[in-house]
Specification:
- The chain is an alpha/beta fold.
- 38% of the residues lie in helices and 22% in strands.
- α5 packs parallel to α6.
- The two termini are 21 Å apart.
- Bound molecules: adenosine-5'-triphosphate.
- Adenosine-5'-triphosphate binds next to β2 and α1.
- This is ABC transporter ATP-binding protein.
């Protein structure tokens, strides 16, 4: 069973007086299996944040269903949504979102404190996780004492401390220089190899080329998807760039020429 399954999801935003409805997402169906590493790409305004907000149960779809780790999100009462998010999801954002007055260890432990985990269990978990993220010697530091890359690793540790079914990352490399971004993406790759399911929204073709599958959204619809298969990262990067070019040129995937057909032949799969 997939960790995440969206069926025919649509989202319409209504302005206050209902005059100008914005159809942000239309008929999105997709699933993410346990252990997958999926990137979502699309132009500004294509609906990526809307999609993440729906998956994170921060907002509700206008139509369709979203099943996360065996629970249909619409069945979760508002009062239990925060607890559900804490138990099933980890979040990494572009701007780290660390608490300045908490040291690294307390930042990482925050979700466990909120879920009232006993202190010995918290200690055990943070001591096991920190070395995996290169943070073993940083636990008593404060965020302002760390580089951007280190801060983002603290954010990743905080996201992973609850052992979430799905790690959601929204432009995680957006505030990092290219070298540091590369280090973070290598870390995500390692986490994924160790079994972590990851869904990452990104504008960066390089970042997306670290994933096993890349979904492209255009005007709120699933435009295309690419599978890594046995392509190298560089080969996938070329295909991603071709698809982005086609998307910006408003072509269909097949008009984009080899991109779609070669990928379909390679994987036997193709989106809509
Ligand atoms: N709360 C809202 N009320 C009305 N319209 C909204 C709201 N949030 C988003 N939209 C509209 O929905 C569409 C999709 O927006 P969304 O933020 O999901 O795109 P995005 O792909 O995440 O963009 P970006 O890459 O710039 O963050 C856009 O037309 C946007 O203006």
């Amino acid at each position: 069973m997939p960790i995440l399954e969206l069926k025919n999801v649509a989202k319409t935003y209504h302005t206050r007086f209902n005059a100008n409805a914005v159809q942000a997402l239309t008929d999105i169906s997709l699933s993410v299996e346990a252990g997958e590493y999926v990137a979502i790409m699309g132009e500004s305004g294509s609906g990526k944040s809307t999609l993440l907000n729906l998956i994170a149960a921060l907002d509700k779809p206008t139509a369709g269903s979203i099943d996360l780790n065996g629970t249909e999100l619409s069945t979760i009462p508002e009062s239990r949504a925060a607890k559900f998010r804490r138990e099933h999801l980890g979040f990494v954002f572009q701007d780290f979102n660390l608490l300045d007055t908490f040291n690294v260890k307390d930042n990482i432990l925050l979700p466990l404190v909120l879920s009232k985990t006993p202190v010995p269990a918290m200690e055990k978990r943070v001591l096991a996780l920190a070395p995996q993220l290169g943070l073993a010697d940083k636990l008593t530091k404060f965020p302002y004492e760390l580089s951007g890359g280190q801060q983002q690793r603290v954010a990743a540790a905080r996201a992973l401390i609850t052992d979430p079914a799905l790690l959601l990352a929204d432009e995680p490399t957006g505030a990092l220089d290219s070298h540091t971004a590369d280090e973070l993406l290598t870390l995500f790759g390692k986490l994924n190899q160790a079994g972590q399911t990851i869904l990452m929204v990104t504008h960066s073709a390089v970042a997306a080329s670290h994933a096993q599958r890349v979904l492209f959204i255009r005007d709120g619809r699933l435009f295309h998807q690419l599978y890594r298969g046995d392509l190298s990262q560089d080969e996938l990067l070329v295909k991603i760039s071709d698809t982005m070019t086609a998307m910006l040129a408003k072509q269909t995937p097949t008009q984009a020429g080899k991109t779609a057909s070669a990928d379909a032949a390679h994987t036997g799969k193709e989106a809509d």
